[in-house]
Amino acid sequence: MNTYLKQLNEPQRAAVLQKDGPMIIIAGAGSGKTRVLTYRIAHLMQQGVDSFNILSLTFTNKAAREMKERIAGVVGHSEAKNLWMGTFHSVFARILRSEADRLGYPSNFTIYDTQDSVRLITAIIKEMNLDKDRYKPKQILSRISSFKNSLITVRAYFNNSDLQQADLEASRPRVGDIYKAYVERCFKSGAMDFDDLLLRTNELLTRFPEVLAKYQDRFRYIMVDEYQDTNHSQYLIVRALADRFQNICVVGDDSQSIYSFRGANINNILNFQKDYPDVKTFKLEQNYRSTSNIVEAANSVIDKNKTKLDKEVWTANDAGESIKIMRTISDGEEGRFVAQSIWENQMNHQLTNDSFAILYRTNAQSRAMEDALRKKDIKYKIYGGISFYQRKEIKDLLSYLRMLINPNDEEALKRIINYPARGIGATTIDKLAIAANHYNKSIFEILLNLDKVDLKINSGTKTKLENFVRMIQRFQIEAKTKNAFEIADLVVKNTQLVKDLQKDGTPEGVNKVENVQELLNGIKDFITDKIETGEDSSLAVFLEDVALATDFDSEKDDTPRVSLMTIHLSKGLEYPYVYIVGLEESLFPSAMSMNTRSELEEERRLFYVALTRAEKVAYLTYAQTRYRWGKLTDGEPSRFLEEIDEKYVEHIAPKAPEPSANRFIDASLFDDSPKRIRFQKPIQKKRQEFLAKKAKPAVVPPKGKMKKVSEVSAKANLFDGEIVVGNFVEHNRFGTGEVIALEGKGPNKKAEIKFSTVGKKKLLLQFAKLKVI
Ligand code: ATP
Ligand code: MG
Question: In this structure, which residue's CA is closest to atom 2 in ligand 1?
């Protein structure tokens, strides 16, 4: 037997060996679905299937890259390289590029990211003189997105009285007009947004049977991971492509369907059998990822869902540690607890940062975590925040590059026509936009015909516009003979972009200059990579990669970091230690998803996804008070905590609790040192011994009888009370120092301490958390 087949259990192997016909693998988390897909591709190639004939669709491009690496290990790099693998968006963007002219698009069409789309919708709302509080651009975009993902075109919208009625009732009667204008403007700009990549692919495959036939013939074997989260548009593409050979293999877990708000349709998985009556169904039941405590705990929660397919998940792994539940006073303390716990686990088990992930329901929760990690000098990476490519300075430079490839790109043009400042004001740009609408041309086409269009601008402005056009055209000529890096470099040098940032002089300015430099380095790397693999290294391809890049794709340094992300993004991933934070009613489950059973069940699936990311230990935390929307709110523990079978749970309390005297005072306010002081070696050792001794939590009250945090803190204060002049003490951030004076009484007692690194400081004992050493 081939070695890779030996790395599979019996049902996994059966699924890999099943070569032809439709098949579905339905299985719980961590049971090897992704592994089976990967090995199946390798096996198909071993069986003589041409790598060009295999299409594999994954949830992220990073997942695709990792799968490719594995496959290359079996079949070699030169073969693996030909595989079509990636997200729906990246694979079909590539196909659309070669077929664009059929749809009236230039092959070098731009891909608008969400930021571009929102800006365009904002402009349209303004031009239509609509109230932007009633027509919120992001909401409108999400409505348009839902139309597109259900294949409702503008014409279909205007033929559908139900949809129009719904918008009318929501007091937004002009949604259809905005949709129409948005589609037209994108088209004129030679731009597709993310949803267009799917919508236009559907259009392509429906309108042009010869194109459909071509890709059906090419993709003789099709595989889809995370099938439970495909939307209608994706479903139709897959069904069309697989229609001829019917060699379609989808894998998924209905219990992990978490994207219905983006149009994902769990029925795609449930109805697979109806679509393909000959389907072979495989079930994988053994989980290889997690301890049995985690697997059982996750099972006990998901069991509460009514709508789910019948399936078991078990594991042969050890019981491992209990699931740890932790209550904290505030979100600040929650952050500090998590950071402290990560630090201790690292010390106790010799682990690097990349063994840890912090998962939360909403992006806003990352801040408290970040603050705490920074204070402890623990390196982290946030996924799903503002990505590198969306920073202003980067987007500005990219907009120049986009213009060279596609000068009709309206959003790019608007960003750079007056950046760096060249005296072209907002009024002029408005006039250009109006003319463009009037003549049904792009703004750049208007600029090329300034003599024929009466814009009512003075001759000075006209000259400035002409200069701008000449500059772009000069770059375009250069772009014909230069590679992507040389062009980007030329643009940076000739536009004063960096000079403008340097003038700024602030640390942020310096940071921006570095980012621009980083982008140039990135382009250089891109070219080297592509040349090595013999792929297209043009600027157009670079821009496409960038438009479709997720944070997972722009990792540049190899420093191990703690991963922070929303649960939605964590799908398919695994980490030894997982912290799920903010387990409070109204936050998780979200207040917006508690009204119907189906919404609540989706939240529960989300919790199931979160918990099943953990390999060894899962920590679940909740805060009694939390700042939300600028207000301090009281929190109740999430119902999901109750739903976990008690057998698998252990309640722990914070080890270095905050004083309870005033919960509105954040102890960290008293620490004004921005940097963490590194301890000298002997102290570091002592600290480790101390922590090792205390590896078990100090207070472990039984469930339901949590010790009040105030009792615990009283103890800590007693500890501080023992401090006398002459003691050597250790402080979280200031490091070690000698107590040289004491003053005041009770809660006002202060110590003057001479720290070896930061000098003398007076600290309130009740907040200072000093340790005598
Ligand atoms: P998810 O539902 O979270 O996407 P999955 O079903 O795709 O999970 P995988 O990610 O493929 O599961 O596998 C989970 C872990 O178990 C991985 O680390 C994988 O390498 C390991 N694994 C899977 N099958 C086996 C096996 N037969 N022997 C050893 N390890 C395995
Ligand atoms: Mg998977």
Answer: 29
